[in-house]
Design a protein that fits this description.
Structural class: mainly alpha
Largest sheet: none
Radius of gyration: 21 Å
Helix content: 40-55%
Shape: elongated
Length: 55
């Protein structure tokens, strides 16, 4: 991946990269909204602290 840094005398590369990132984020968000994809990438455990203890 190429890194782009902002330069006062040549702002076009950083503006192009920012626009690319923005479009990518909007596209991914729209895809998730259309497909109903979950927001989490891993499953949430049923009991985050472990199974319930018996008295």
């Amino acid at each position: 991946m190429e890194r782009v840094r902002f330069a006062v005398d040549d702002p076009l590369p950083s503006l192009a990269m920012s626009g690319s990132w923005l479009c990518s984020g909007v596209r991914k968000g729209a895809h998730r909204m259309r497909t109903g994809a979950p927001h989490l990438t891993r499953p949430v455990p049923a009991h985050p602290l472990g199974p319930p203890q018996q008295p």
